[in-house]
Amino acid sequence: MNRNRMLIGLAIAIVVALFLSTFVYRAFQSASAIKPVTTEHIVVAAQPLQVGTRVDASNLRLIPWPSGEPVAGMFTRISDCANRAVITPLAENEPILESKLAATQSGAGLPATIPEGMRGLSVAVNDVVGVAGFVIPGTMVDVLVTGRLADSGHGGEQNITRTILENVKVLAAGQKIEQDREGKPQNVPVVTLLVTPDDAARLTMASTEGKIQLSLRNTVDTRLLMPASVLQDSLFSGGAPALKRPTAAKYVPPPPSPYVVEVITGNKRENKSFPNP
């Protein structure tokens, strides 16, 4: 009896061993059947690159990339994208794409980042206007201007603040040297904004005749709200001022048409008018 049990146990062990060995053999076969991944080279930034930087062999390099996973606009040779300027900041090892480079023969530096039909306009700012240094290339801002309203209808001149530009891209932020009142050179913060030619004229007038302020906004918030202007009276009088509205002219109906009567005297005929009451 015990011998039969031992034989049965041995048979079960042999069957299990055969099953496991078959499973392992098939797993190894499947692993060996996997084809190796073929790769090609893709051009990436060898170091962080700022807007306007001209790319060449000194700041680019090649890394392996799966051949079956192409990226739209990628480059496989450094020579294909050399001597072109970067129009967006790039991190180290970030792929160089066609959409991130300025057009061929457009040069390098800030001018290469300005799209056709647009303008780059620099305005002097201070730490407050520049939103405490948070206005950096790539951020989006609104431009507000404060100036004097000559005739507001509320007893003379008063200040007014209005938003003249919304969702404007910052191209650059830097310094320029100007002379102070004593003729001494001083560093003045400057912000360069990407604007249309019409907006460039408005921004120039605002920075010359008034005081501008930049309002930092979320880069994904592209809504144009066109906020209402703010008058000085509305801040210090406890409410919005009562604007004087032009008095509408009183309507006067035209007089009624007179009666016309034909009068015959002998051989003479004539029309006579009589007032219509």
Compact overview of the structure:
The chain has 277 residues and is α+β, with helices and mostly antiparallel strands. It has helices at residues 2-33, 197-209, 232-236; strands at residues 39-45, 54-55, 60-66, 84-85, 119-124, 140-149, 158-179, 185-195, 211-217, 230-231, 259-265, 268-274. It has 3 helices and 12 strands; from the N terminus they run αββββββββαββαββ.
Structure report:
The chain is α+β, with helices and mostly antiparallel strands and 277 residues long. Among the domains are: 39-112, Antifreeze-like/N-acetylneuraminic acid synthase C-terminal domain (Type Iii Antifreeze Protein Isoform Hplc 12, Alpha-Beta Complex), CATH 3.90.1210.10; 119-236, no CATH class. 18% of the residues lie in helices and 32% in strands. It has helices spanning 2-33, 197-209, 232-236, and strands at 39-45, 54-55, 60-66, 84-85, 119-124, 140-149, 158-179, 185-195, 211-217, 230-231, 259-265, 268-274. The strands form four sheets. Strands 5, 6, 7, 8, 9 and 10 form a six-stranded antiparallel sheet that branches. Strands 1-3 form a two-stranded antiparallel sheet. Strand 6 and strand 7 (158-179) form a beta hairpin. Mean pLDDT is 78; it is low at 241-251.
